């Protein structure tokens, strides 16, 4: 019996490219992933991979979204960037739910009222990804 593999991907906009590199190495080596866990950009990259999208196509999707530099964003550009992210997620994932994915996925987010971490693994996928990548006052959930 082979060991089960869980891939855990962290947050950080620019780390998304590094996540894609890791996925590409695992994919090319034929190492099966049994579970993906991610937060923020790691949740987005992980969801795309769990949906069966290749690392190459994920990389192209990230290039369309563009790099995220929080220090250069004003409120208008933050809303425009969030809309671009939503559109790219819709393009790549459609109306998929967690149940539609090829690989089980857990997305982490923070409850803004209690401050508690929340693990999301059912229901609509895109709202969970947006909640995970939210930065209050910059990228709302």
List keywords for this structure.
single chain; 141 residues; alpha/beta; Cytosolic phospholipase A2 catalytic domain; four-stranded mixed beta sheet; 5 helices; 4 strands; globular; disordered C terminus
Detailed description of the structure:
It is a single chain. The protein is built from 5 helices and 4 strands. It is of the alpha/beta class and 141 residues long. It has one domain: Cytosolic phospholipase A2 catalytic domain. A 4-stranded mixed beta sheet has the order 1-2-3-4, with helices on one face. Helix 1 links the parallel strand 1 and strand 2. The longest helix has 19 residues. The N and C termini lie far apart (41 Å). The C terminus is likely disordered.
Short description:
This protein has 141 residues and is α/β, with parallel strands linked by helices. Helix content is 44%, strand content 13%.
Number of helices: 5
Proportion in helices: 40-55%
Task: Give the name of the CATH architecture.
Answer: 3-Layer(aba) Sandwich
How would you write the strand order of the largest sheet? 1-2-3-4
Largest sheet: 4 strands, mixed
- How much β-strand is present in the residues? 5-15%
Provide the gyration radius in Å.
15 Å
Give the SSE string: EHEHHHEEH
**Which stretches are poorly predicted, pLDDT < 50 over at least 5 residues?**
68-75, 137-141
CATH T-level fold name: Cytosolic phospholipase A2 catalytic domain
Average pLDDT score: 85
Number of strands: 4
Shape, principal axes of CA atoms: globular
| CATH C-level category | Alpha Beta
Structural class: alpha/beta
Find the CATH superfamily.
Cytosolic phospholipase A2 catalytic domain
How many domains, in number, for the residues? 1
Distance between the termini: 41 Å
């Amino acid at each position: 019996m082979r060991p089960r593999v869980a891939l855990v991907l962290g947050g950080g906009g620019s780390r998304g490219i590094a996540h894609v590199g890791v996925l590409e190495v695992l994919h090319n080596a034929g190492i099966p992933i049994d579970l993906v866990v991610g937060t923020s950009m790691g949740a987005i990259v992980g969801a795309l991979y769990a949906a069966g999208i290749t690392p190459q196509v994920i990389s192209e999707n990230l290039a369309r979204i563009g790099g995220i530099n929080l220090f250069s964003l004003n409120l208008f550009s933050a809303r425009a960037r969030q809309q671009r992210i939503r559109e790219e997620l819709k393009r790549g994932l459609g109306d998929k739910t967690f149940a539609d994915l090829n690989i089980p996925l857990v997305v982490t987010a923070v409850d803004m009222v209690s401050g508690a971490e929340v693990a999301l693994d059912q229901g609509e996928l895109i709202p969970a990804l947006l909640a995970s990548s939210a930065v209050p006052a910059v990228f709302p959930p």
